[in-house]
Specification:
single chain; mainly alpha; 434 Repressor (Amino-terminal Domain); 0% strand
Length: 387
């Protein structure tokens, strides 16, 4: 779609503001690109184009990632954006030009009154609202929506757990380009089966047939492999339906919730206090551990850049960070337990089939293990018993 000349253009002034935010954060263009999740030797060029205003129509997400990488926010560029959003709309500008031409034949002293009257006349007349049924209070709507969302999330969990196994039983090669489309197709079938539980006869089969035909044409997979997955989805859906899992809704009562808020706080027993303290300590340790995982993953990106690992295959190595963290924190350096923990991932046929290079994986482990042990010195104590 062609853009009108009167649409937003990323200005050099806005680019200069972004550059100031990056310098304030003490980041080079390449460091910021990595913080934004952009990889590759040319990633810094994207940051440079933004700062110079050469990226005329950047996406909202790109600007958000830039600000996030600088630990800044939209509030830091709001004044510049507000200058643009306060301007008349493109439609208003066109209408004003047309209206000005229309009144050009009127005496000058009458032109302004004519324009003002036209604007008043053009405003929609406020109508008396139709009588409606009493609306459900917002909090009750939110509660009902929360119940349905919780039920939907539970169903998606059941679907996903089944499809994780089922897509590998179709007889097709278990690569990402095969597993991911099959997984999405299975989810689509589960969705159709759920939405058509009370539909008219024939509607479900029609939608399923259209889904199958569209997927077969788009994927090019053998029809017998696709139908093997679909038959399994039908059986699993029937099992969930018979077990009553599809009708499950959490028992959330607003009255009970409010009563709990208003009720006096009861003193916890010694055992309950111990349990609460344990939960809090576990949470603190897990938060620090997760932060270290993200930090170490960011630090090994140059190794992946050097090895020329493309972005779509880095997820294979991303999964190695967790086992490295666990091996570093739970086992002594060079111990058998450490080796077993790493080999479970590095030697797994699934990851090898998805392009995991064992030599590169070992190199990453050699960097990540000592780094995790160094960061672990600042962790809150782990209340879990050591092995």
């Amino acid at each position: 779609m062609k853009r009108s000349p009167d649409t937003f253009v990323f200005t050099s002034e806005l680019g200069s503001r972004l550059r100031d935010l990056r310098l304030k954060a003490g980041l080079t263009q390449m460091e910021l690109a990595r913080a934004m999740g952009r990889a590759g030797k040319s990633a810094g060029n994207l940051v440079s184009r933004l700062e110079k205003g050469d990226e005329r129509y950047p996406s909202f997400g790109l600007v958000a990632d830039f600000l996030r990488g600088c630990r800044a926010g939209f509030r830091d560029v709001t004044d510049i954006l507000d200058l643009y959003t306060s301007l008349p709309t493109a439609q208003d500008k066109v209408y004003d030009v047309v209206l000005t031409r229309a009144v050009s034949g009127v005496l000058p002293k009458w032109q302004t009154p004519v324009i003002e009257y036209d604007r008043q006349f053009d405003r929609p007349v406020t109508q008396v609202p139709a009588k409606k049924e009493p609306a459900m209070p917002d909090r009750l709507k939110r509660l009902e929506r929360a119940r349905k969302n919780a039920a939907a999330a539970r169903r998606r969990y059941f679907y996903g757990e089944y499809l994780k196994v089922a897509v590998n039983k179709t007889g097709l090669k278990p690569t990402m380009t095969v597993i991911e489309p099959l997984f999405k197709h299975g989810l689509e079938w589960f969705g159709i089966l759920y939405r058509t539980r009370d539909a008219k006869p024939g509607k479900r089969e029609k939608l399923l047939a259209e889904s199958e035909a569209g997927f077969a044409k788009a994927s090019g997979f053998p029809l017998d492999a696709i139908r093997k997955l679909e038959d399994g989805v039908r059986r699993r859906f029937a099992e969930l339906e018979m077990a009553g899992e599809l009708n499950w809704l959490p028992n959330l009562s607003l009255e009970e919730y409010e009563a709990g808020l208003l009720a006096p706080v009861r003193k916890l027993s010694f055992k309950q206090e111990q349990h609460r303290e344990l939960v809090n300590r576990l949470h603190e340790h897990d938060v620090a551990r997760k932060a270290a995982t993200e930090k170490v993953w960011a630090e090994v990106q140059p190794l992946l850049d050097e090895a020329g690992v493309p972005g779509d295959r880095r997820v294979v190595y991303r999964g190695l960070v967790g086992p490295c963290c666990k091996a570093a924190l739970d086992f002594e350096p060079g111990s058998r337990g450490e080796r077993v923990q790493l080999d479970e991932y590095i030697l797994a046929p699934l990851w090898i089939s998805r392009g995991l290079d064992q030599a590169l994986a070992e190199k990453l482990c050699g960097v990540m293990l000592p780094r995790f042990r160094e960061l672990a010195k600042s962790f809150p104590p782990d209340p879990r018993p050591k092995r």
